[in-house]
Structure formats: structure tokens, C-alpha cells
Specification:
This protein is of the alpha+beta class. The protein has 23 helices and 6 strands. The termini are far apart.
Length: 554
């Protein structure tokens, strides 16, 4: 298209003024001062047309920037909290290897390949401290806020709705949590919302092929991060088909269906190419056995789904006043029962999200982890806030948005007051940093330690301080073994599971008491000890009761 041409949207052949453009044509633009009427040039916008973001309203951009900064500051407060199990394991098993080896080491689902590669580069430039390991997740979680604001505007064309929804995304505790967890879930959530915005855009202008190409690239990158990105991709593919079938223009229906199908196929091809190193390194049979992000909760399907839904509901609503999720659910309900207009994407998007989630639950052999559904939360928040625009009275709508904004502020204050966030499971070794520092002060480096569960967090901190890692208790050079007991456990709990590793050690004595754990030291028995004290810690077939009795009496 030349500089003297402009792009005109062709409307649907249906009745009504709200019909969606079917296609665009290029016509010669007048050389008069028409640009003064429309000061926003489409060619200079990234995703926006003249009726998209109100760029001239500086207050909108300022408020959106302030909400983003506030959400980023809230996340930054937790960047240096203790390393968790998955974060430490990913660093020790994948990040420390050369960049080209990371895709080839896809032996566990914890290797979110694109995220791991980004962490590798961050470590190469900035070091291996916990904030650096969490930098890609933090940046993605922060970028999720303005992306959600954009999606709210594209869907509702209401500034108040877009900003209120963005504030909710900025302060949601579970989103703050995963923005400070060195995992790829916030990257998937961000790319999902990018697909949300691009889908709304290509529905309005289906002939803009560059945006279909971006749709393909975003889909492939998300799937290269975690394969669960397939679920939101199917969501928007279904939404595009539903929107095409709702239109009355055959030409427009043909364009949308053709480009949607072609884009999905191209995304699948690019994703296959990206996973080719993993396929070549592992082989098809071994790669097919790599576990998905799934988990069994119980022995019954009903029990699995009930536990999954209750866990998701608990994580999503933590720190929120009860009225907030109730109002968002009300918005989703109103959006379904009230007319949205042929041009609106609410119902197709909600249908796509629901249908793809149901298909995923039916297709997967076991119930997905609750964190798999994190990508849904920002999308449902945006859709719920849009549904609230269907409240019949303007004053009630304003009061509802004020209440929800107040709930977002309350949620932010409650989240900020937390010492640790919701994904900190009870067995996370919070004192791992302090424990590594204690081991660093050991004069005799021939030591071992055990904990329950066997967490890699102390190994990470030993690596951070360039210290030699602890040996296995079975190593004959080890002179003493430390037993780490978390704040939710007792010494008996650990010995019951790990007793077979310390049959040559004892008795247990309290070594240090830390804020969230205790450390017991068990010296290795000498041969004279072995002759004097038969059984207990000395025999591999000793019962736990014997071990316990010996540790208490010796």
C-alpha cells in the first residue's frame, strides 16, 4: 500500500450498525487536512486502529502505567524470597548447561524450554542469584498487566472497565506468586493474553496477514515454553470459528475460517521444528513418555476433578474479599444472557475457553495440576469485567467497578503483608539459604545431610556460594550427617523415611534451631561403637521404633 492510500473496512452484509468489517480495500487518501480529524495514524500503531486505544487521553495511559508500576513493585518485593523445589531443580539440572543443550535435555516436564533458555541468558549476564533466576517470569508477569488492560479495552471499549480489570490482574496473589517463581507459567499467561488481543484484532480486520503471522509465532513460542499452551490455542481457534459462523457474510466467513485453520497448521509445524532437537536427542519413544503437567489426586475421576477445582478456586481467590469473585462470576453470567452485539467477541471467547478446557480434561489421562490453569485467570477477569457492563443501571455499574477496585487494593495490601506466597508448599525448605551458610562454616567438609522431601534448594545455595556440595551419607569419608527437619515435620517423620540412609550414624543431637526448621547432627559410629551397640542405627534391617529408641536413649 502506498503512502497516498488508506485502508477502509468493508462491513458485513447483515443489518445493523454494529456489524463487523468483512474485509478491507485500499483507496486513495485525500490530500487535505483530514488527518486532523483522525490524529492517530494506523500505520504507526502497533496493534491499534483509530477506534482502539484513546492515545489522546493521556490520563488513560498514565493510569495504565501507574497500575503496571504498582503491580511490578508488588512482585519485586518477593523476588528474593527462598528458592523452591522446582526452581532449584531447574537451575541445577538444566540452566547450568550450555544453551544448545537445553532443548536436548527435555527429560522432565519441569524443563520449560523457552523459559529455561531465557534464565540461562539472564544468569550469563547477571549472575545466578534468586532474583536473576526469576527475572524472565517477573518481566512476563509484569507485562501481563498492560496486556490485560489492552484486552479489556479491545473487548469493551470502556476505559474504566479496562483499568479496573488491569488492577485486578496486577494484585491477584496467585499471579504475583508465579511472577516471582522461576517457572514458565507467567510466560504462557502473557502469550495467552497476546493471542486474546490479536484474535480480537484479526476478527475485525481478517485480511491483515501480518497479524495472522504474529498469531502463529506467539502460539509456537508459547507451546515451546510449555506444551499446555495448546489449550489456549485451541480456545482462540474455536473462538475464531464461532465468530465466523455468527457472521452473515459468506466471504468473511470463508476468510476467517481459512486463515484460522492455516494459522493453526503453521503454528503446529513451527512448534514441531522447535522441538526437533528434543526429538532427535531423546527419540520418539522416550519423548512420548515424558510426563505431562498432570497429577493424580485420588482414585476416582470425580474426586480428582473436585480436588482440582477446589484447589484452583482457593488459589485464585486467596486474599480477596468474598464479594470480588462473586461479582466477576456475575459479570460472566450477564455477558452470556444479555445480548452482546454481532461485533462483540465475548461469547466466542468464553465458548472457546470453556470448550478447550473441557476437551483437555477429557483428553488427558490424569487430572492436570491446578497451576496448569493459571493462563485462564487473566482472561476470565477481563471477560468478567466486560460482562459487568451489561448491568442495566449506570450508577450500579459505577458502584460495582468502585467495589472491585477497592477489593483489588485490599488484595494488594494482604499480598504484600505475606511472608511467603501461595505456591510455597508446606515442605519447602525456607531456611535453605541459612543451612547452606552453616555448612559453609564447617571445618570438616566431609559431611552429608538429608531432608524430607529431598530438596535441591540447599544444593543451589551451595552452588551460589561456590562451595563443594554435600556428600551422600553412604560415602565412607563422611564423618557426620545432618538431618534437616522442616517446621511442619518432626525428627521422627524424617527418620521414618530416611532411616535406611543413616544406619551407621547416631545418636541425633540438636545442632541448630532456625526460624522455620531444626538441624540435628548424627556422628558416624566408630568400630568400637559398632561392637558395643548392636542393631539400631547400625543395622539396615532395624525397625523405626528401634532407631527411635536408640536415638533417645544413647
Amino acid at each position: 500500500m502506498s503512502e497516498n492510500q488508506t485502508e477502509i473496512a468493508l462491513p458485513d452484509s447483515g443489518n445493523g450498525t454494529n456489524s463487523t468489517p468483512a474485509s478491507t480495500i485500499h483507496v486513495d487518501a485525500p490530500r487535505s487536512s483530514e488527518s486532523a480529524t483522525h490524529p492517530i495514524n494506523c500505520s504507526t500503531c502497533v496493534l491499534f486502529d483509530r477506534d482502539c486505544i484513546p492515545v489522546r487521553r493521556h490520563s488513560f495511559l498514565i493510569l495504565a502505567g501507574l497500575i503496571t508500576l504498582a503491580g511490578g513493585a508488588l512482585r519485586m518485593a518477593f523476588l528474593d524470597h527462598p528458592m523452591r523445589y522446582d526452581e532449584s531443580m531447574v537451575y541445577l539440572n538444566y540452566v547450568i548447561y550450555p544453551l544448545y543443550e537445553i532443548p536436548q535435555r527435555y527429560t522432565e516436564v519441569q524443563n520449560h524450554i523457552l523459559h529455561t533458555m531465557l534464565v540461562h541468558e539472564a544468569v550469563r549476564f547477571f549472575g545466578n542469584s534468586p532474583p536473576v533466576l526469576r527475572l524472565p517470569a517477573f518481566l512476563a508477569g509484569t507485562a501481563l498487566i498492560p496486556t490485560s488492560i489492552l484486552c479489556g479495552w479491545l473487548l469493551s471499549k470502556r476505559i474504566s472497565v479496562a483499568l479496573s480489570g488491569g488492577a485486578f490482574v496486577a494484585t491477584a496473589t496467585v499471579l504475583v506468586d508465579y511472577s516471582t517463581n522461576s517457572r514458565g507459567y507467567t510466560i504462557v499467561a502473557l502469550l495467552t493474553m497476546c493471542l486474546f488481543a490479536i484474535t480480537c484484532h484479526v476478527v475485525r480486520y481478517p485480511l491483515r496477514r501480518r497479524w495472522w503471522l504474529i498469531w502463529v509465532v506467539v502460539s509456537a513460542l508459547g507451546t515451546f515454553t510449555i506444551p499446555i499452551m495448546v489449550i489456549p490455542i485451541v480456545s482462540f481457534w474455536i473462538a475464531l470459528h464461532a465468530r465466523a459462523l455468527l457472521g452473515k457474510s459468506r466471504r468473511r466467513r470463508h476468510i476467517l475460517l481459512s486463515w484460522a485453520n492455516l494459522s493453526a497448521c503453521l503454528a503446529a509445524v513451527i512448534t514441531s521444528i522447535l522441538y526437533l532437537p528434543s526429538l532427535l536427542a531423546l527419540g520418539t519413544n522416550r519423548l512420548s513418555r515424558v510426563p505431562n503437567s498432570v497429577h493424580h489426586y485420588s482414585n476416582t475421576v470425580v474426586g480428582d476433578l473436585h480436588n482440582m477445582v477446589s484447589t484452583v478456586a482457593r488459589d485464585w481467590t486467596i486474599d480477596l474479599p468474598t464479594i470480588a469473585p462473586a461479582l466477576i462470576i456475575l459479570g460472566l453470567f450477564l455477558g452470556i444472557i444479555r445480548p452482546n452485539g454481532r461485533r462483540n467477541m465475548f461469547k466466542p471467547l468464553l465458548l472457546g475457553l470453556f470448550a478447550s478446557s473441557l476437551l483437555a480434561i477429557l483428553a488427558l489421562p490424569v487430572t492436570p495440576y491446578p497451576r496448569v490453569w493459571l493462563y485462564l485467570l487473566p482472561a476470565l477477569i477481563v471477560l468478567g469485567f466486560h460482562g459487568l457492563t451489561k448491568i442495566p443501571f449506570e450508577n450500579v455499574r459505577r458502584a460495582t467497578l468502585i467495589v472491585l477496585t477497592t477489593c483489588a487494593i485490599i488484595n494488594a495490601s494482604r499480598t504484600f503483608s505475606r511472608e511467603f506466597l501461595v505456591s510455597e508448599d508446606p515442605h519447602t525448605l525456607v531456611d535453605a539459604d541459612r543451612i547452606a551458610r552453616l555448612f559453609a562454616a564447617e571445618e570438616n567438609r566431609a559431611y552429608a545431610f538429608i531432608s524430607l522431601p529431598s530438596t535441591p534448594a540447599p544444593r543451589y545455595y551451595l552452588n551460589l556460594y561456590d562451595l563443594p556440595r554435600a556428600a551422600h551419607p553412604a560415602d565412607p569419608r563422611v564423618k557426620k550427617c545432618y538431618v534437616v527437619v522442616n517446621h511442619t515435620q518432626t525428627l521422627d517423620d524424617v527418620l521414618k523415611v530416611k532411616g535406611q540412609h543413616i544406619v551407621d550414624y547416631g545418636p541425633a543431637k540438636l545442632y541448630r534451631e532456625l526460624p522455620n526448621s531444626k538441624i540435628y547432627v548424627l556422628p558416624r559410629h566408630t568400630r568400637s561403637d559398632s561392637s558395643e551397640v548392636p542393631g539400631s542405627f547400625l543395622r539396615a534391617d532395624s525397625s523405626f521404633s528401634e532407631l527411635k529408641q536408640h536415638s533417645l536413649t544413647r
